Design the sequence.
C-alpha cells in the first residue's frame, strides 16, 4: 500500500508537460464548436494536443473540463457586475450586451454562436448537471441585468410600471436567438440590426424624469 501511495505522490507532483491555459483554451473552442455531448475525449485530446491520461490528470474528466472551459468563456461574474454598474443606464448596458453578443458570435477566429447555447443543444439526461451549470450562468446574467433595471426604476429613469424581470429575460432570449442565427451563418450586420430592433421594445424614459430634466 505504501508503494502505491508513493507512486501516486510522484504522479501528483509531476509537472505538466504542456501549457494548461493553452490546452484549456483549445478545449473551450472544441466544446464551443461541437457542444458538450458530441465532443468526445478523442476530439478534446486532438484539439488540446495532449494524451487522454494527461487530460484526466490535469482536468479530472470531461465534465469538469467543460465546466472549467465554461467559466473561462463566461468570464468573471464580478466583472459583469462592474460593467453593468458602469453603464450610464440599464438601456445602455442591455444594448452593449447585444452588440457584444453579435460581435462574439461572428468572430473570425472562434466558432459561430454561443458556447452556452451549443453546449446543451442535445439535452440528454446524461448532461443534466452540465445543463444546470449552464442555466445557472444565464440566470446570474439575467439577475444582474434585472438589478440594473431596478436601479433605473428606483431613480426614475424607467417608469415604475416597468417589468424588470421580463425586460432582462427579453434581452437574454434575444442573445440566445442570435446564437442560433449566427450558427446559421447570418452575417454580423444582420445581428446588429436585430439588436437595434430588439432595443425598440425598451420602455421609454419615465415622464417624471422628462419633466424634471
Sequence:
Amino acid at each position: 500500500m505504501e508503494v502505491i501511495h508513493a507512486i501516486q505522490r510522484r504522479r501528483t507532483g509531476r509537472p505538466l508537460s504542456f501549457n494548461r491555459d493553452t490546452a484549456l483554451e483549445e478545449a473551450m473552442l472544441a466544446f464551443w464548436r461541437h457542444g458538450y455531448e458530441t465532443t468526445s475525449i478523442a476530439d478534446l485530446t486532438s484539439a488540446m494536443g495532449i494524451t487522454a491520461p494527461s487530460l484526466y490528470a490535469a482536468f479530472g474528466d470531461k465534465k469538469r473540463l467543460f465546466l472549467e472551459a465554461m467559466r473561462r468563456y463566461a468570464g468573471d461574474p464580478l466583472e459583469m457586475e462592474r460593467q453593468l454598474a458602469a453603464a450610464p443606464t440599464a438601456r445602455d448596458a442591455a444594448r452593449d450586451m447585444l452588440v457584444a453578443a453579435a460581435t462574439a458570435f461572428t468572430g473570425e477566429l472562434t466558432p459561430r454562436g454561443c458556447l452556452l447555447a451549443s453546449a446543451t443543444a442535445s439535452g440528454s439526461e446524461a448532461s443534466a448537471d452540465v445543463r444546470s451549470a449552464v442555466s445557472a450562468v444565464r440566470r446570474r446574467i439575467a439577475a444582474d441585468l434585472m438589478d440594473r433595471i431596478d436601479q433605473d426604476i428606483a431613480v426614475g429613469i424607467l417608469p415604475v410600471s416597468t417589468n424588470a424581470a421580463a425586460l432582462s429575460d427579453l434581452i437574454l432570449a434575444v442573445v440566445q436567438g442570435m446564437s442560433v442565427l449566427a450558427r446559421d451563418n447570418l452575417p454580423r450586420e444582420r445581428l446588429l440590426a436585430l439588436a437595434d430592433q430588439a432595443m425598440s421594445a425598451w420602455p421609454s424614459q419615465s415622464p417624471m424624469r422628462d419633466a424634471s430634466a
